[in-house]
Amino acid sequence: HHVAVTHARQHTIQVVAHRGASEDVPEHTLAAYVKAIEDGADALECDVRLTADGHLVCVHDRRVNRTSNGRGAVSALELADLAALDFGSWRDRGDSTEAPDWSDPEYTSVLTLERLLELVADAGRRVELAIETKHPTRWAGQVEERLVRLLRRFNLADPPTPGESAVRIMSFSPRSLIRVAAAVPTVPTVYLAQFVAPRVREGRLPARARIAGPSIRIIRNHPGYVERLHEAGLQVHVWTVDAPEDVELCVRLGVDAIITNRPGQVLSQLGRA
Ligand code: G3P
Ligand code: CA
């Protein structure tokens, strides 16, 4: 027997595009996600909120004020109201090297989760999706209900095992994760946290989530944290990792996913682009 067997375990860090390739392109626009896919991102992150007429849209803040030319809470506006707003031009500093066409709706239209799911389905390669539910508790389960309905429509609700799922649901809200886990038990959940929590350290996450989502600040201040989480049987997905030295730290500590606004640069730092 002269078969050489290599046991070097290739631990590939998943690169997740935070709000799309949002360093280059207005966050949460279709163009930001198209760019992230072109850049080679393994997964896309998006925040979802419910409109007044029950549509899930990809908007981070409670209000549309920062990222559009409109005003008011997403929850008080209907999809048609949001569709009339410009979600891109606020980023037009007139100094872009690859000046986008600001009249192209891909750069300026509000993005529905449905449209993002279509984009991923048509990507031509496996692109995973990490969907974050934002302040979902006041909606008494409506956000999760709509979300699960969409996952079913796109045949993403029943992966045989969590490891095979192309989608995962993230939240700072334990209640939201519990609702998701009850409806779609094999879709993985990610418990996001800004602070070190003893329960998390011991591997006790809400909804029996097996993925912890700490901020890079936690990782910088507590370098032993990743190892602790791994020992507790959890995966570790860190946000938001943009600085090269932070990417370096994440590589050294062996995190499982890096969530970044600049997927192209991170992939080239990792030698994958
Ligand atoms: O990926 C998690 C991260 O996005 C959480 O923070 O405020 O950017 O949604 P935020
Ligand atoms: Ca987010």
TrEMBL record:
Name the UniProt key words of this record, in alphabetical order: Hydrolase
Q: Which GO MF terms are attached to this record? A: glycerophosphodiester phosphodiesterase activity
Enzyme class, broadest EC rank: hydrolase
Q: Name one GO biological process term.
A: lipid metabolic process
Instruction: Give the highest taxon in the source lineage.
Output: Bacteria
**Enzyme Commission (EC) number:** 3.1.4.46
Which ranges carry the GP-PDE domain? 13-270
Q: Does the keyword Hydrolase apply?
A: yes
Q: Does the keyword Hydrolase apply?
A: yes
Question: In its UniProt entry, what is this protein called?
Answer: Putative glycerophosphoryl diester phosphodiesterase 1
- Record organism: Streptomyces rubrolavendulae
**Gene behind this protein:** glpQ1
